[in-house]
Amino acid sequence: MKIVQENLAELEKMVQMKTRQLNDPKVVATVSEIINNVVENGDSALKDYEKKFDNVDIDNFKLDQSVIDDAYDNLDKDVKDALFLAKKNITSFHKKELEDGFMDSEQKGVLRGQKLVPLQRVGLYVPGGTAAYPSTIMMSAMPAKIAGVDEVVIVTPPQKDGINPAVLAAAKIAGVDAIYQVGGAQAIAALAYGTESIPRVDKIVGPGNIFVATAKKQVFGQVAIDMVAGPSEIGIIADDSANPRQVAADLLSQAEHDKLARPILVTDSLKLAKAVSENVDSQLKVLPREEIASASVNNKGFIAVVEKIDDMFTLMNTVAPEHLEIQLEDPTQYLNQIRNAGSVFLGKYASEPLGDYVAGPNHILPTGGTARFSSPLGVYDFVKRTSFIQYTKPALEREAKQITTLARVEGLEGHARAIESRFDTYYD
Hints:
Elements: E1 3-4, H1 8-14, H2 25-41, H3 43-53, H4 65-73, H5 77-94, E2 102-104, E3 110-118, E4 121-125, H6 134-147, E5 151-156, H7 165-174, E6 178-181, H8 184-193, E7 203-205, H9 210-219, E8 224-225, E9 233-238, H10 244-255, E10 262-267, H11 270-284, H12 290-300, E11 302-305, H13 309-319, E12 323-327, E13 343-346, H14 352-357, E14 383-391, H15 393-409, H16 413-420
Parallel strand pairs: 1-11, 4-5, 4-7, 5-6, 7-8, 9-10, 9-12, 10-11, 12-13
Antiparallel strand pairs: 2-3, 3-14
Helix pairs in contact: 2-3, 2-8, 2-9, 3-8, 4-7, 5-6, 5-7, 6-7, 8-9, 10-11, 15-16
């Protein structure tokens, strides 16, 4: 794994994240055509696309509940136990995110407040193909259910041999209401606009390829979306106290996701840097997803050696990684130095996969440097806020002159007259 030693300013320039490009004209045009076709032709367009892209003939998009129940009943006990542990911890963590509305009457005759309203229907995109991500279903469906969303539905590409049983079981455990066999940009279009078989939703969440991500970007405004996600990232801050074998394994845990995944180690120890680099090379040779992980390590990964701990955090805050591990002595003392990260893992026993599966905090995180301004998926993503106001006549009269003054400053005479219509006196 490449080791770099530059001054901090040069390193900061180097680590500026190049986010996944979603403006490829061919992809944009293709996705736009797919969306328009689904809007105009509904289920008919979906069936054509599933035949074309997934080579599957679909008669009924909605998966029968008996198929889901059978997958759950026959799931390996160890897998089922792991999913229930995940459910327990995800629930306990995300329940703490629940918020209350408020109401105040601090001024005589004035009532103000805000109420929180769950979204009515949410759609989860679950990728298909060779990978199966039951953990992502748990992480996306359960916060929605905890928030009080009425209906949570899944879209996922159909498979010739059937959808992965672990995916179906996870959907049942997480409380998903329906599963529809459709994938790609056409599935996003169906969720955004609705078809004869698939209901329109209020928000779409979940990862996907560049066509799915581009479709989410194009339908935003028609519906809400969680984020436009890019390849996975891991940043590790470590010193001489860290175990190089463990650090290397953690870097590879994300490198194996995607050839574009970005594994980064920042350290003040050249000795650790060299040991980690050697361990990455040796572990790659026996990793089942060696081809993918090697491309990630060689093209996107590096180890940066800096002078001091403060420089490690300065550099990593510039990266704003999706996952950030702090492998230093007494790591909690450094929490205040972390400004930009999706999720933080403290100490040598908080390996990143802990957060992927069972710890409880969400693993759907901002990528591509967007942790500078974005947050992990949570309960708050599935509620909206509505404010309310009530004034008595005397309370309105106290402030009427100021309202009409500002209205006329803005050239909105109708606004001023709407207030004045409540009184016999004009405030001009």
